[in-house]
């Protein structure tokens, strides 16, 4: 699932697998589909 995050008055879409923030919801979903959660490179 992609999380919605409000930051600096803007809505971001966060990959639940690795925590990556993307501006575009479609991009975020596409990323997450291809994301490997086994080796997270970015933790929040
Ligand atoms: Zn990811």
UniProtKB/TrEMBL annotation:
- Superkingdom, taxonomy of origin: Archaea
InterPro entries of this UniProt entry? DUF7128 (IPR055552), Znf_C2H2_type (IPR013087)
Residue span, C2H2-type domain: 13-40
- Its recorded name reads C2H2-type domain-containing protein
